[in-house]
C-alpha cells in the first residue's frame, strides 16, 4: 500500500469520526455506548496510520538526502546538518574501521550495476527535548553564558494612607544560572582508502548524517537526565516533585496522580508552552487510564501534525525519560520554555587524513558544544510525578 493510499485511508477514518460526532451534536443527544466504541476505534486506527505515514515520510526524506549528496570528497569537510535531522528517527547500526570486508563496508562495493546504491539502516526513536518549545540559544563562542533570574513573587503591593510612608520595602534579589559549552563527540570512524575508491556510497555524506544522529542521541540523553555536575542539567533531573504516588503505585499511576501533578504547577506555567513528557512505555500507562464515564483521558491528534493531548496539553515522547519504576520520576509537566538549550556554532565534521595513514585509512568524526539547564527563578515551572517506593 503506497503513501497516497495510506493518507486517503486515514482521511476517511477522520471524516467518519467527525461525521459520527457531528450527527450526535446535530441531534442534541449524547453518543451511545456503541457509538463511543466506534469512535474510539476510528481514532485509534487513524493515529496508528498517522504514525506509519510519518515513519514512511521520514524514510523517503532520508533516501532523497542520500541520493542528492555530492559525489566529490573534500580533504577537510565541515558540515552542519539541519536541525530537522535532530528530530527524525535514528539509524542504529554503528560502523567502525570501515574496510572492504563485508560487515565493515564491503557490502557497499558494487560487483556490477545491479547494486542497490544506499545503506539500509535500522531505525529507533530518538530525541524529545528539542521537540518541546524549549528556549534555544546559539552562540558564536563557548564562553560562559550567564542567565539572570529573579523571584519577586513573595512581594505584594500594600495600601498606604494619604499621608502614609512609602519608605519601607524589600530589595529585589537577582540570581543567576550559567550555561557552559560541553564537548560532545560522535567517536571516530575509520574508513579504508580502498573502500572510498570502490564503494558506490558517498561515505563522507553518509557518515555526516550518521554523526548528526549519534550526536542528537547523546545530546538528548544529557538534556533529559543530565545531573548538571560537569555535564548539562537535564529537564527531568531538574524538575521539582509535583506529586508522589501513593503506596502500592511503584510501577503504575492513576488519573488522580496526573491531575495532582497538573495542578501542582502554578497556573501561570500552565500555558501554550506547557507539555507532558514521558517515554513510550509510560505513555501506554497513561493511554489506558479511563475517566468515571469509561472514556480514555488521552486524546489522540486526529489531524496530521497535531500531537496527542493529555488534560488539554500536548505530549512529548522522549525515549530517554526513565521508566515507571519505584522512586523514579517518569512523567514531567510544565512550561518547557523555561528549559534553555545552548549551542555553540554548529556541528563540525572533521576528516583526519594523517592519523591512520600508516594503516591505509582516514578517520572521520564530528563534535558539537552545548549545554542545557532549567532556568528556575524559584517557582518550579516544570514538575514531575515520582513513583512510590517498592
Explain this structure.
With 390 residues, this protein is an alpha+beta fold. It has 2 domains: 1-68; 76-107 and 120-148 and 175-390, 2-Layer Sandwich (Major capsid protein gp5 fold), CATH 3.30.2400. Helices cover 29% and strands 23% of the residues. It is built from 7 helices and 16 strands. It has helices at 3-27, 33-68, 193-198, 203-225, 235-238, 255-264, 280-287; strands at 89-91, 123-125, 135-139, 145-150, 174-179, 182-185, 189-192, 240-244, 274-278, 298-299, 309-310, 313-317, 331-335, 339-352, 361-374, 382-386. The strands form 4 sheets. A 7-stranded mixed β-sheet has the order 8-16-13-9-12-11-10. The chain is flat and about 80 Å long. The protein starts with a helix and ends with a strand. The relative contact order is 0.17. Mean pLDDT is 81; it is low at 69-97 and 107-118.
